[in-house]
Design brief:
Helix content: 25-40%
Structural class: alpha/beta
Mean pLDDT: 91
Largest sheet: 6 strands, mixed
Order of helices and strands: EHEEEHEHEHEHHEHEEHEHEHE
Strand order of the largest sheet: 10-9-8-13-11-12
Low-confidence stretches: 173-179, 288-295
Distance between the termini: 19 Å
Strand content: 15-25%
Length: 295
């Protein structure tokens, strides 16, 4: 059996990774003042940040079932027998719903996976799924690889303000922090597809120190015999990301990899300029005997 892996643009996968692993990416859309743009093509992350700072109306929309079906048909035309389609949390977007509708019309069987995550916490899971697929694993094993790695990841983030999460309706249980938003700089985490309050900090500088410390602690606590991969996300805040990159490399010299990945326009719309996020994920890949792959 040959299996194709499909995901969406909120995985924030670097272009090089998409090409290397043969991953099919379906874009979401950003709508600025009523004008719709395809993520990754029609509008840049910096342009989204500028629009948000200017208090322009910015929203996002899911891919349609037709767009998902188009991706499935293209994958099937490449000669695959099955597709594993991994997407951002259904608690944050109806993208999974579009995938399920499209799967019912796909020319080959499609397994839709809700990653309960977003960003590289999902992207790492997609990469592992692609590795299993390339090694000849069944769709069931490929889907299990994605679910397992997404579940094992930790995702935490700092936002300059909770306002963008509130506007987009993605604030979740972090809404408990709104009453004191002017007095604090919040640290948040993504857990099982939900945004949760993690810590209240008085200043942005202290919040970034605490984000670093929490990342280090999370990585050190992971059961990761094959190492840990880390992604540092930002929206229009590259200096903050580069500073954290240097500190993480110094404190975790044996980490498998650490990279800076700018948040996509869609995720950036909901967290706002100045956001700094981290995703840490234990590495996983296929065993030498695919039929007995242990995840």
């Amino acid at each position: 059996m040959t299996v194709a892996v499909v995901t969406d643009s909120t995985a924030c996968l670097p272009r090089e990774s998409v090409t290397r692993h043969g991953i099919h990416v379906v874009p979401l859309h950003v709508v600025v003042e009523g004008r719709s743009f395809t993520e990754g093509e029609g509008i840049s992350c910096s342009e989204v940040a500028e629009a948000l700072r200017a208090h322009r109306t910015v929203s996002t929309s899911k891919p349609s079932p037709g767009e998902m079906l188009d991706a499935y048909e293209k994958a099937a035309a490449g000669g695959v027998d099955a597709i594993v389609s991994v997407h951002l949390s259904a608690s944050m977007s109806a993208t999974v719903s579009s995938a399920l509708v499209a799967a019912s019309e796909s020319p080959v069987p499609v397994t839709v996976v809700d990653s309960h995550s977003v960003g590289m916490a999902m992207g790492f899971a997609v990469e592992s799924a692609a590795r299993y697929a390339a090694a000849g694993a069944s769709a069931e094993v490929v889907a299990r690889a994605a679910r397992s790695r997404a579940e094992a990841a930790r995702a935490m983030f700092y936002v300059d303000t909770l306002e963008y999460l509130r506007r987009g309706g993605r604030i979740g249980k972090a809404s408990a922090l709104l009453g004191s938003a002017l007095a604090i700089k919040p640290l948040l985490e993504l857990s099982d597809g939900q945004i949760l309050p993690l810590e209240r900090v008085r200043t942005s500088s202290k919040a970034l120190v605490r984000l670093e410390d929490r990342l280090i602690s999370a990585v050190e606590a992971m059961d990761a015999p094959l190492g840990v991969e880390i992604a540092i996300h930002h929206l229009d805040s590259r200096p903050r990301a580069d500073d954290l990159l240097r500190k993480v490399r110094a404190r975790l010299p044996h980490v498998r990899s650490v990279q800076v990945v700018e948040l996509g326009a869609v995720v950036g719309t909901h967290v706002g300029p100045g956001t700094l996020a981290v995703a840490a994920s234990p590495w996983s890949g296929p065993s030498t005997v695919i039929g007995a792959a242990v995840l």
